[in-house]
Design a protein that fits this description.
With about 110 residues, the protein is mainly alpha-helical. It contains six helices and two strands. The N and C termini lie far apart (about 25 Å).
Length: about 110
């Protein structure tokens, strides 16, 4: 399954355009513009599986920097600051990685 089976390509493009400049990525805004915040729990779990590049069941910090590239291969990498902010916003149990439930909570909050 591809991310565009769940999210519209035009919404993804708009979300990526909004955060082209380094340090301009806002998770909440990205989730809203891309349409992720309106998706069902099962759809968000599928998006999580796509974003979990190594299929470990978690999105680790090293995977997070490539977050935008999972939506479009030519997108920029997140800066160190953006990566840490995204991790801190989602990692509720403090284990240094984002689980599927933490991801869903972040997107839907």
């Amino acid at each position: 399954m591809s991310i565009t089976d769940i999210l519209s390509p035009s919404d993804i493009a708009a979300a990526l355009r909004d955060c082209q400049a380094p340090d301009s990525f806002s998770p909440k805004k990205f989730f809203q513009i891309s349409g992720m915040s309106k998706k069902s729990s099962s759809q968000l779990k599928e998006i999580f599986r796509i974003l979990d590049n190594d299929q470990s069941g978690f999105i680790e910090e090293d995977e997070l920097k490539y977050f935008l590239q999972r939506f479009e291969c030519g997108a920029r990498v997140l800066t160190s600051s953006e990566t840490k902010t995204l991790l801190a916003a989602a990692d509720h149990d403090g284990d240094g990685k984002i689980g599927a439930e933490e991801f869903q909570e972040l997107v839907q909050s």
